[in-house]
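Dear colleague,

Thank you for sharing your sequence with our group. We've completed the structure prediction you requested, and as agreed, I am returning the results in plain text so they can be pasted directly into your records. Please verify that the sequence below matches your submission; if there's any discrepancy, let me know and we will rerun it promptly.
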Amino acid sequence: MLLKTAIKNIEASKEFKDFKKNNQDFYLVHAFTLIDKVQQDWQVGYYSKTKDKVVVFLTGKEITKSPEEEVFKKPGHKVKELNMKNIKLNLEQAIKKANELVKKKYSAELVNKTICILQNLETELYNLTLVSQAFNIINIKIDAKTGEVLHESRQSILGLKKQ
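Please find the predicted structure tokens below.
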């Protein structure tokens, strides 16, 4: 499902409208999906500055809402609104660009899963994490407006440690 369609479905749902009645200050901050052979349902997050909490709506046969959760952010950082008007690249285009980069720079890697987050860090971007058969993680950040690759790196999952 296209993200804009998913957001439209969420925001038109009774679940969302009931939530917004009592939670006016929540705003769109991220969209998440996993691609494992096929794309999973979108999970769309809304954030409240006053509560410093996020609520996630899941698309699917029905729209469901998660309980309020803590926000994953660096101390002192603000959670920026995701402005869908700034999104010119769709997920399919971002994945295509990421796959071209992998083919060019990391041709030995066979990607099994792709974790996709659309968020606003300094600009709206697709934050893609590609997991390979060799237990490597390739992280690619693509500007959602221009299609420019802003960052790319590769590291072994086996090298990840709790610090």
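Summary note from our side: The mean pLDDT is 93.

Kind regards,
the structure core
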